[in-house]
């Protein structure tokens, strides 16, 4: 496992990169990250290399070709809030988001560093079909005209001024 905390990239953007490498062998994941044109790819690559080094040093994994990325996720970190002045005295808030990147690798042959895999999203049944309702009839100008005829004339409460 390797974890990079308080990384200055939003978790949403980091997840796009992490989804590409989850479940792949380490060599293939590194090749994918090398050619991914996103800023988060550089940060994820650094964490992945650290996870491989941890497996080699802490678990004495000698054959690095057997390592696979079994966990890769990004949790949201603290948000740095700033204020940008705008026109007419208004304030515009700016949120600099941070994230915590976590990558776990496993040696499939002996299971060194095995952690539980992320739960697989279940596929739900498609939503039930909605009944088709006929579109409401459009009002015509003739109906509007007939409605206005039914309204009583407006009454005035003031009496007209008398002329001198």
How would you describe this structure in keywords?
164 residues, elongated, alpha+beta, three-stranded antiparallel beta sheet
Distance between the termini: 101 Å
Main β-sheet description:
3 strands, antiparallel
Give the strand tally: 3
Radius of gyration using CA atoms only? 32 Å
Oligomer: single chain
Helix-strand makeup class: alpha+beta
**Number of helices, counting only DSSP H or I runs of 4 residues or more:** 4
What's the helix-strand series? Answer: EHHHEEH
Low-confidence stretches: none
Strand content: 25-35%
* Helicity level: 25-40%
The averaged pLDDT comes out at 84
- Could you give the order of strands across the largest sheet? 1-3-2
Overall morphology? elongated
Characterize the structure shown.
The chain has a 3-stranded antiparallel sheet with strand order 1-3-2. Helix 2 packs antiparallel against helix 3. It is 30% helix and 26% strand. It contains 4 helices and 3 strands, in the order βαααββα. The longest helix is centred in the N-terminal third of the chain and has 20 residues.
Secondary structure layout plus pairing:
Layout: E1 2-7, H1 11-21, H2 26-34, H3 39-58, E2 67-85, E3 91-107, H4 141-150
Helix pairs in contact: 2-3
Question: What is this entry, summarized?
Answer:
The protein is of the alpha+beta class and 164 residues long. It has 4 helices and 3 strands.
